[in-house]
Amino acid sequence: MAVRTRREEYRESLRQDILDAAREMFVREGYEATSVRRIAEKCSCSPGILYHYFDDKAAIMAQLVRETFVKLTHRMHAIAEDADASALDRLRRICLTYIAFGIENPHHYGVLFATSYPGHEKPKVIAAAFEEEGFRTFNCLQHTVLACISDGLLRPELTDEKEVSQAIWAALHGMASVFMDCHGFPFIEQSRLIGRHVDILIEGVRA
């Protein structure tokens, strides 16, 4: 097994520092207001050094998007492939996992959905990251919904797995976002509210 040199360790550490700093700034200040120079300043490096790691600001955001979707997909995929559980049970656990990920990782989740872009249009490299890795994440949900339909576990009129999956995702996203956006609202205990939300969601689609 190759031993990493100190230079390699430094480069890897700085690259991660750049990503961590950019993630926080993108979510807190917005994509448009965040510059490469300011990201570099936060990491105590020059913009020139930062450009050795990433072509531009969009490339940094694209990497953050990819990494976040990969982490979320990993959690969801493990549930989707659990052959010992019913499809409906897998769907419920995926719903809970999705919401938990957003709440436990607000900056990661914020990179995906709480960031606006100039003209409301993502730069191509960022859009590509959403299409590639975001599709894999959504496919875990859609694959499980399709299994529920195939097993006759959903209401008979719910036959379009894409439609059902998008409706479920919208409900999950709403719950994940509400804890980040509605500070001060007198919510009931968090896990109880999330459990009730998912119960209502599942009961609304099951046969």
Task: Tell me what you see in this structure.
The protein has 207 residues and is mainly α. The chain folds into 2 domains: 1-54, Homeodomain-like (Arc Repressor Mutant, subunit A, Orthogonal Bundle), CATH 1.10.10.60; 57-205, Tetracycline Repressor, domain 2 (Orthogonal Bundle). It is built from 9 helices and no strands. It is elongated. The relative contact order is 0.11.
CATH third-level topology of the largest domain: Tetracycline Repressor, domain 2
Number of domains: 2
Structural class: mainly alpha
- Taken in chain order, the helices and strands follow as HHHHHHHHH
Q: What is the percent of helical residues?
A: over 70%
What is the radius of gyration? Answer: 20 Å
Query: What is the name of the CATH architecture of the largest domain?
Result: Orthogonal Bundle
What count of helical segments does DSSP give? 9
Shape: elongated
Low-confidence regions: none
Tell me, what is the CATH class of the largest domain? Mainly Alpha
State mean pLDDT (0 to 100 scale). 93
Number of strands: 0
What about the largest sheet? Answer: none
Termini, distance in Å? 54 Å
